[in-house]
Amino acid sequence: MKKTELQQELGAPRRYFDYLALFDLWGSVFGRDAILARLYQQDHWPNNDLIQDFCATAGIPHNGEETQRMNVSLSRKGFQFLMAVNNLFPITPGDHTNDMRRRLVDAVSENFPGKYYPITQDQAQTFYEQFDESNEQLRQRAFENLPYPLFDDDFSEYPTSPDSEFPEYSEAVEIAVSLWRQKLDHVNSKRNPIQRIKSIFPWLNK
Questions:
Q1: Which of 32, 82, 135, 139 has the fewest Cβ atoms within 10 angstroms?
Q2: Tens of pLDDT, residues 56-82
């Protein structure tokens, strides 16, 4: 099957989204009985916690602590900013600058959370329908206790028309200023009380 225009935009092959093929691949290596599939959906996890779900499934004791969510959804501005960062600051295995990049991503995620959908409702629906048959086969093989459809087919949160593909210059400046302010706040928090007081009341330095 040829790639759809949306797949070409996403830059990912079909097999990346074909969960049935992935399930069969792992089963062919380790044996079908050795595969215990789970859904990556919060409402299927104990206390909406992925780590607790993993521990319960694997029979591993859990300390009961709530897991801090690390992968935060981004607003359109945050998403587009990080896309530009990826071009200028690529991930290189073993590179010591990866930690710097991680801290930048964390800062953007903290300051610009939200939900951004780069495709429309119709595009999402069309893309989803490609895998309707294979998803149903997966449900019958690995999740027969769950109803059809296996995955949420409600795309009402997606925009009805395409959003802006290109960030505004002013938005990039806004993000840069936000990150700079956060950096200054972090530096000031590490100063001792006397230094902080003198920074607020400079006449004390005279």
A1: 32
A2: 999 999 887 777 766 678 998 898 888
Which two tokens mark 88?
A: 């200028």
Q: Which residues pair with 38 in a beta bridge?
A: none
- φ and ψ of 163, to 5 deg: -85, 170
State how far the Cα of 76 lies from the Cα of 162, in Å rounded to an integer. Answer: 12
Length of the chain in terms of residues written = 206
Residue 150 burial (10 A CB sphere; 0-12, 13-18, 19+): buried
CA 108 – CA 171 distance, rounded (Å): 13
Q: Could you please report the per-residue DSSP string of 106-142?
A: HHHHHHSB----SS-HHHHHHHHHTTHHHHHHHHHHH
Phi then psi for residue 177, to 5 deg, are: -65, -40
> Which residue is it, tokens 């290189």?
92
- Residue 23 host element (H or E): helix 19-30
Pick out the chain residues at pLDDT < 70: 1-12, 69-71, 93-97, 165, 187-206
pTM of the model: 0.68
Tokens coding 108: 């953007």
Which residues in 53-84 are b (16+ Cβ under 10 Å) and which e? Answer: beeeeeeeeeeeeeeeeeeeebbbbbbbbbee
